[in-house]
Amino acid sequence: MTVSEKVSYLKGLVEGLDLDKDDKTVKVINAIIDTLDEVAECVSELELDVADISDQVDAVDEDLAEVEDYLFEYDDDDDEDLYEIKCPECGNTIVADLEMIDNDEIKCPECGASLQLDIEEIEE
Ligand SMILES: [Zn+2]
Predict the structure, then answer these.
(1) How far away, in angstroms, is 78 Cα from ligand 1 center?
(2) 84 phi and psi, to 5 degrees?
(3) Which residue among 50, 63, 66, 113 is buried most deeply as judged by most CB within 10 Å?
(4) Is the pTM of this model over 0.70?
(5) What distance in angstroms lies between residue 84's CA and the mean position of ligand 1's atoms?
(6) What per-residue string of b and e applies to 78-103 under the rule 16 or more CB within 10 Å gives b?
(7) What are 15-70's pLDDT values in tens digits?
(8) 38 C-alpha to center of ligand 1: Å?
(9) Domain chopping of the chain, boundaries
(10) Please, what is the average pLDDT of the chain?
(11) Which residues surround ligand 1, an ion (CB under 5 A)?
(12) Average pLDDT of the residues in 109-118
């Protein structure tokens, strides 16, 4: 039972008593019920607002996760430091990271030629 339903039920109970509306005590009871009715309406509106905001937060959370994924990927690519080296023997383009380049030397996977590298020159 929601708060609104409880207040409606209470209203029905009081109406069923068929009380004298001009009686001071009955006026107080009716005023209390009217106030409860307004409070229940406010609570219902707030519940709807909270549900809306919750949906929006979920959407923002999903968007943020996508942004994080993008930034993470971008960082990975940035950290890898890939170099494209053209083999002077066979013309094959070798994509290598720093780990593959040992002592400024790399072996061409196509023709097996050992290539002498100048890292500083490649970075430019
Ligand atoms: Zn080669």
Answers:
(1) 26
(2) -100, 120
(3) 113
(4) no
(5) 13
(6) eeeeebebebeeeeeebebeeeebee
(7) 999 999 899 999 999 999 999 999 999 999 999 999 999 999 999 999 999 998 88
(8) 82
(9) 3-80, 83-123
(10) 85
(11) 87, 89-90, 92, 108, 110-111, 113
(12) 81
Provide the residue type at 12 as one letter.
G
Where is pLDDT greater, at 102 or 51? 51
